[in-house]
Amino acid sequence: MALSTHLLLNIKAPPVPSLLKSHRSSSSILPRNFLIPSPCHRKPIKEIMMKPQAASVQSAVSEVMSLIQSSPPTWQSAILSNLLIFLLGSPILVSGLSVSGIAAAFLLGTLTWRAFGSSGFLLVATYFVIGTAVTKVRMAQKEAEGVAEKRKGRRGPGSVIGSSAAGCICAFLAIFGAGGIGYSRLWQLGFVASFCTKLSDTVSSEIGKAYGKTTYLVTTLKVVPRGTEGAVSVEGTFAGLLAAILLAFVGGLMGEITAPEAIICVIASQIANFGESIIGAALQDKEGFRWLNNDAVNVINISMGSILAVFMQQVLLQNLRM
């Protein structure tokens, strides 16, 4: 009896496996490279779903940038580039253009980008910013004297077309390769010269109306009130010359024209502006020439500047060859 009791007391109960040991033993049957995800490492479903979306957005942005940087420019890249720039620059555009003027400017910008790329567009943008800025100079004074531009200087489609007609023609000639590769530089020169001419005209007129001390009628040298058609002032003429030099410099910096061509653009712009002043003094607002409004005179002015620049460049080349 004592022996049996002693044996019963020495028998040990089998160990009860703990949850941890059970887990380890059960995991031993899994492959070695199988990892049981910890709750803290589990990614939310939303994060997993956002990865493909982010990749698609990045891909779309990459495609857009490739399209914008197309060389040579295409109509698609021109439209897309203008759309982005016009959206970003809308506050500036609204300050200088009416709604219909913005629409006309969009067509001009698209055509310019297609013909001459981003460098040509930057040239036109520079013209627009400077031209808008000088139009706003002493606006209250100009309004009081009755010589300010309408709509607080916000120009409409007629003004946009009148200021860019010659440039648009040069752009179309460049796009369709008129005259072959040899003439492409000529159309580029004519394009730059047209905007140098128009910016010089705008600056000389607006600065002359704002600061001109004495204004002379160009045909008779008679002293006339500021803002008179065909009138010039020393202050306005000098400012217009500086504006032409500045825009020609931008054109050269962007690779649109060479240094000699920049000089040609400045000279052509001043000759054209003098001719425009004669037309304004002799014909504008005269009987039989009521149709000759500011927009029509602008077309004549910039066309003269563009044609003169092309002609001067050809004459210069002929002399150099001789």
Structure in words:
The chain is mainly alpha-helical and 322 residues long. It has one domain. It contains 12 helices and 2 strands; from the N terminus they run αααααααααββααα. It has helices spanning 2-10, 19-27, 45-68, 75-88, 90-96, 99-136, 139-145, 157-175, 181-211, 234-253, 259-282, 294-321, and strands spanning 216-217, 231-232. Helix 6 (99-136) packs across helix 9 (181-211), helix 9 (181-211) packs across helix 12 (294-321) and helix 11 (259-282) runs antiparallel to helix 12 (294-321). The termini are far apart. Mean pLDDT is 84; it is low at 1-9 and 18-27. Belongs to the TMEM19 family.
Features:
322 residues, mainly alpha, two-stranded antiparallel sheet, 71% helix, disordered N terminus
Helix-strand layout with pairing:
Blueprint: H1 2-10, H2 19-27, H3 45-68, H4 75-88, H5 90-96, H6 99-136, H7 139-145, H8 157-175, H9 181-211, E1 216-217, E2 231-232, H10 234-253, H11 259-282, H12 294-321
Antiparallel strand pairs: 1-2
